[in-house]
Amino acid sequence: MAAEAKTPSLAEEYSLPPQEVAVEKAAEEKPSSGTETEAAPSTNDEAPPSVEDKNETSEVQDTAEKSEAEETNTAAEETPAAEEASETTEEEEAEKPEIKIETAPADFRFPTTNQTRHCFTRYVEYHRCVAAKGEDAPECDKFAKYYRSLCPGEWVDRWNEQRENGTFPGPL
Amino acid sequence: MILRSLECRFLTIALCDAAEPWQLGSQDAATPMMQGIIDLHHDIFFFLILILVFVSRMLVRALWHFNEQTNPIPQRIVHGTTIEIIRTIFPSVIPLFIAIPSFALLYSMDGVLVDPAITIKAIGHQWYRTYEYSDYNSSDEQSLTFDSYTIPEDDPELGQSRLLEVDNRVVVPVKTHLRMIVTPADVPHSWAVPSSGVKCDAVPGRSNLTSISVQREGVYYGQCSEICGTNHAFTPIVVEAVTLKDYADWVSNQLILQTN
Q: From start to end residue, where is composition biased (Acidic residues) (chain A) (predicted)?
């Protein structure tokens, strides 16, 4: 369903999608509940296009988040990684923050050992996204997550400082 | 001492995940990559021994038969087309047999094959390491980061390895694809864990990636592998591999500790 909406990019074609399995299963289970059958496809169509870089599974993640919010247990337990985490958090949900085992995906623009550009590009992408969509735009969150995962904290601090001073060397 | 080393090699009770005195071989593999490295080493050694036997035989035979006592008048052969072709072609085929599996392993090591589940940043300092687990951050403020210092030489507890133990170990889950981002904050360092088959140089201003997937639970020891200053020898690396559930527990505990 997600693949028909637009042609998948190179990264989507070749990456192993653990998220998609979870979404499909969650969508299959939904008709049994009967109430919100159209929820997943409709969010797909309405999903606003993210910034010019669309090689990530943006709508898949959107639907995953939606369905998780609607029925936390089924959606969370489908993914093998989240399964373990949810077990622990269900017991002590009140005190412990939920641990989501998820990080920036492998990016085919940066297939080599040198990941300096990967980090930098994600940082620039986030700030371009914020500039285009405005602060607090939900579609920019994933870029924030990616650059925080990839960039050493010291670099982020320095770049933040440079942006404030207007001396940031990237295309913002 | 040698006996103990042999014991580690052949009478394996616990697997060898730290450097041993008088150690000759590799540490036991904890990742598929290390297993590949060990297998490649053994494959190449097969050819190495063949060559050693063949060359030794030629050398010993030549010395035995063609010396002043047994053969006072040397033969004057200066040209032999067949033998020259054979001894040119054949030795160049052998490196091919070594190169094919070697390149296959090399490219499988740095290829982007699967999406990693966790990114851990190992940041080298003079002379300690900072580890950042930034997958759980909700702002640019670091939520889970800690320094890993060596236990001083005069301070180890019973059972700890001298100059190999640290105060805060890197905790990783087993059977999970990990992305290690390695970078220093000052001078070049190197993040190396022999059991994981990983040695990744940390170059200032650059972040290097290395992927590991630890297959069994355990504590793995490594040392800084790029001369980084006076305390280079006192900058060990300790990786503690636990189950995914324990890892999630550990992360949430650390998050609570660091936020409070």
A: 80-95
Question: What's this model's pTM, rounded to 2 decimal places?
Answer: 0.70
Asked if B121 has any chain A CB less than 8 Å from its own CB, the reply is: yes
Q: Which of B136, B142, B171 is the mutation pick for testing A, counting most A CBs within 10 A?
A: B136
Task: Sort strands B145-148 and B189-193 into parallel, antiparallel or unpaired.
Answer: unpaired
> For an interface test with B, which of A115, A127, A158, A162 has the most B Cβ atoms less than 10 Å from its Cβ?
A115
Interface contact flag, A148 B140, Cβ < 8 Å: yes
Q: ipTM value of the model?
A: 0.81
pLDDT in tens, A29-81: 444 443 333 333 433 344 344 444 444 444 434 444 444 444 444 433 444 44
Facing residue for A99 by CB, picked from B114, B145, B248 = B248
Tokens for B68?
A: 């002043």
Tell me the chain B residues in contact with residue A102 when contact means C-beta distances shorter than 8 Å.
117, 135
* Contact residues, chain A, for B136 at CB < 8 Å: 97, 99-100
**How many angstroms separate the Cα of B21 from the Cα of each of A142, A150, B2, B158?**
48, 37, 8, 18
The domain spans of chain B are 32-68+80-110, 118-259
Give, in order, the Cα–Cα distances in Å from B227 to each of A58, B124, B126, B150, B208.
Answer: 44, 12, 11, 16, 18
Domain boundaries, chain A: 115-165
Average pLDDT, chain B: 87
The predicted-structure confidence for B40-51, as pLDDT tens digits, reads as follows 999 999 889 999
Superfamily of domain B118-259 in CATH is Cupredoxins -  blue copper proteins (2.60.40.420)
Please give the structure tokens belonging to residue B144: 């889970």
Element (H, E) at B239: strand B236-242
CA distance readout (Å), A44 to A139, B8, B20, B195: 13, 58, 57, 45
Give the orientation angle of helix A39-46 with respect to helix A58-70, to 10 degrees.
140
Q: What residues form DSSP beta bridges with A102? A: none
Q: Which of A99, A110, A123, A142 to mutate to test the interface with B (most CBs of B within 10 A)?
A: A99
